[in-house]
């Protein structure tokens, strides 16, 4: 045990001495959370929009109240001519204009159908897209509310050209995504590199000649990264709760247990890579191309898996981060417990066991 | 009768059809400085790996410090020190941290490590350098430090794999002073080298050619046998007959 402690202590010295490693370790998760977080929320928050209400009836007023209630928009009321509206846009003061036609409510009640015009400043395409999506969602919400007790549903048609709506659905999916990504990077790449470095430097031989057991060498090398990864999980959660207002709905303990499981999966992967390669560059390339890229593509974090062709959907099943992403998303956002996640957990545990067995086996073969 | 610390009998290692080490037999006495010579690819490293318990022999037998290389590798590892041809300390750790680490994994107590550290610092004249990163030291010092760390736990045998590569003659001489000192403490030194002046420093040397030990004797006897003026000539006469290419 004392030997193990001496080893882990040395390992921490390595990490803390290397500025680049430190930067990747702690700079990256923070940067990613902040970039993803504020790229998604800051632009649309408190956007100035103009409401031109020719109807001034119950329905239009209720929708305006709903829009004003959301934290995305600041509403300014005005009756403008078309020309005046254009010049306001040109000054860049407002992001969008909503126009309710006259007799809006009457159309809705008698024809079961009414129209709203949403005009956005599309010089900044992303912002325009998001504003349109958010407004559309608010209007749909209202529509659903008034339709609750009706047989023949009313239809409000927001007249806009940008109709798809992925952002609102997955707005906070990035925190679990970043978590999977960061843990992949830290646990797989760092572990692989640090073990391969010992091979390259020739110190691995010295360790293998020492009475310190080879299997323990591997565990002692991986152990600090388990700790560092857990610190990273804590940092990401801390940021997501306090900087992004995204609380953890489910059990925090369960979240940490599942994260530990995933970290061990990653460590096993890193160990496997380190046994199969002999240079740091190759270890890094394999980790990046073989692990990070699939995590981005197949975890469902950036691209929804349901929209992929079937063969790709099948492939996505062998990516550990896909399962971890589902687990974290379910715990953080939906607040689910282990009862609903045992299947994913079992799959992840199975993968971990398999990887650990394979890497320890090939490590022994190498020694002969 | 001298105590034998290394006894090899027809030790062989095959990789498929390739016979890296072919039935080598020799004995090394306690406290002896044994030179293990041979051209690149002659099978020195393979033999040494077997003796250190890193690689299992295909056939033959060997005992190191009285322990069997097949079944008692753990005990062997406790009784040997090893210094590889690549520099083998951690560059981004300080001298002190390196000593503490290697002392730690060899299971020395804190007290022992402290004593050893002080002893090492005064012997190498590194007292003011203990808190410096090893990477910032000159190569000669690194090698001497590396050797001192390899014998930190007072092993019965220390294996040195080309320990003085790239070091200037003065430092090499100092390095050999350390080796002699270790031998005086009855530590057996098993050393490979390509410097023939170093071969002369050994008590006995063996020269491997194509996986076999071709000759084994004291440097003086070998020179007489080959009617040569220096070990250089002896080595050249033997190595020229090698069929294996440089691996």
Features:
heterodimer, A: about 375 residues, alpha/beta, D-Maltodextrin-Binding Protein, domain 2, 2 domains, five-stranded mixed sheet, 15 helices, 5 strands, elongated, B: about 250 residues, Rossmann fold, six-stranded mixed sheet, 10 strands, about 25% strand, globular
Strand fraction of chain B equals 25-35%
Oligomer: heterodimer
Number of domains of chain B: 2
Give the helix proportion of chain B (percent range): 25-40%
C-alpha end-to-end distance of chain A:
26 Å
Number of strands of chain A: 5
Mean pLDDT over the residues of chain A: 80
Q: Biggest β-sheet of chain A, characterized?
A: 5 strands, mixed
Q: What class, by secondary structure content of chain A? A: alpha/beta
Strand order of the largest sheet of chain A: 2-1-3-4-5
CATH homologous group name of the largest domain in chain B: P-loop containing nucleotide triphosphate hydrolases
Average of pLDDT of chain B: 89
Largest sheet of chain B, in brief, is:
6 strands, mixed
Description:
The complex is a heterodimer of chains A (368) and B (247). Helices cover 70% and strands 8% of the residues of chain A. Chain A has 15 helices and five strands. In chain A, strand 4 (113-120), helix 6 (125-147) and strand 5 form a beta-alpha-beta unit. In chain A, helix 3 crosses helix 6 (125-147), helix 8 (174-201) runs antiparallel to helix 12 (280-298) and helix 8 packs antiparallel against helix 14 (320-334). Chain B has 247 residues and is an alpha/beta fold. Chain B contains nine helices and ten strands. In chain B, the strands form two sheets. Chain B has a six-stranded mixed β-sheet, sandwiched between helices. A four-stranded antiparallel β-sheet of chain B has the order 2-1-4-5. Chain A binds chain B through residues 2-3, 5-7, 9-10, 13-14, 17-18, 201-203, 205-212, 367-368, and chain B through 52-56, 74, 77-78, 80, 82-93, 97, 100-107, 159.
């Amino acid at each position: 045990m004392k030997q193990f402690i001496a080893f882990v202590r040395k390992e921490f010295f390595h990490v803390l001495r290397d500025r680049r490693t430190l930067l990747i370790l702690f700079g990256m998760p923070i940067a990613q959370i902040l970039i993803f977080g504020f790229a998604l929320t800051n632009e649309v928050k408190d956007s100035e929009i103009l409401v031109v209400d020719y109807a001034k009836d119950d329905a239009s007023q209720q929708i305006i109240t709903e829009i004003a209630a959301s934290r995305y928009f600041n509403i300014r009321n005005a009756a403008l001519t078309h020309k005046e509206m254009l010049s306001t846009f040109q000054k860049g003061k407002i992001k969008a204009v909503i126009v309710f036609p006259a007799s809006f409510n009457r159309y809705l009640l008698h024809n079961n159908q009414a129209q709203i015009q949403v005009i956005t400043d599309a010089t900044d395409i992303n912002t325009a897209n998001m504003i349109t999506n958010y407004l559309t969602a608010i209007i749909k919400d209202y529509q659903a509310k008034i339709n609750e007790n009706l047989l023949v549903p009313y239809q409000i048609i927001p007249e806009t050209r940008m109709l798809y709506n992925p952002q609102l659905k997955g707005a906070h999916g990035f925190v679990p995504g970043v978590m999977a990504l960061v843990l992949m990077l830290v646990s797989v790449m760092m572990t692989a590199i640090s073990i391969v470095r010992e091979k390259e430097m020739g110190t691995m031989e010295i360790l293998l000649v020492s009475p310190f057991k080879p299997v323990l060498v591997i565990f002692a090398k991986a152990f600090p990264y388990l700790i560092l990864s857990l610190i990273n999980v804590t940092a990401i959660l801390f940021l997501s709760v306090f900087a992004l207002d995204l609380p953890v709905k489910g059990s925090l303990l369960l979240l940490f247990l599942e994260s530990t499981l995933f970290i061990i999966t990653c460590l096993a992967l890193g160990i496997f890579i380190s046994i199969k390669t002999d240079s740091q560059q190759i270890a890094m390339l394999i980790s990046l191309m073989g692990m990070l890229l699939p995590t981005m593509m197949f975890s469902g974090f950036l691209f929804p898996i349901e929209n992929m062709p079937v063969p790709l959907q099948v492939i996505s099943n062998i990516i550990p981060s896909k399962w971890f992403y589902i687990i974290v998303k379910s715990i953080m956002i939906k607040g689910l417990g282990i009862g609903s996640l045992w299947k994913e957990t079992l799959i992840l545990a199975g993968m971990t066991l398999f990887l650990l067995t394979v890497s320890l086996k090939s490590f022994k073969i190498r020694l002969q | 009768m001298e105590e034998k610390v290394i006894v090899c009998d027809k030790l062989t290692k095959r990789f498929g059809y390739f016979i890296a080490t072919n039935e080598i037999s020799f004995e090394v006495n306690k406290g002896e400085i044994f030179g293990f010579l041979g051209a690149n690819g002659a099978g020195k490293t393979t033999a040494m790996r077997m003796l250190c318990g890193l690689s299992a022999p295909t056939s033959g037998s060997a005992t190191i410090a009285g322990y069997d290389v097949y079944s008692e590798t753990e005990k062997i590892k406790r009784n040997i020190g090893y210094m590889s041809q690549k520099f083998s300390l951690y560059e981004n750790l300080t001298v002190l941290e390196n000593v503490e680490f290697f002392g730690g994994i060899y299971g020395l107590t804190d007290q022992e490590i402290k004593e050893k550290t002080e002893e090492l610092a005064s012997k190498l004249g590194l007292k003011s350098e203990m808190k410096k990163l090893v990477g910032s030291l000159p190569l000669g010092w690194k090698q001497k430090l590396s050797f001192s760390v390899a014998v930190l736990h007072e092993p019965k045998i220390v294996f040195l794999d080309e320990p003085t590569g790239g070091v200037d003659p003065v430092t090499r001489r100092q390095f050999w002073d350390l080796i002699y000192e270790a031998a005086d403490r009855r530590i057996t030194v098993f050393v490979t080298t390509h410097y023939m002046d170093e071969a002369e420093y050994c008590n006995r040397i063996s020269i491997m050619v194509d996986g076999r030990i071709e000759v084994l004797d004291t440097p003086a006897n070998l020179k007489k046998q080959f009617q040569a003026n220096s070990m250089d000539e002896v080595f050249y006469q033997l190595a020229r007959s090698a069929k294996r290419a440089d691996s």
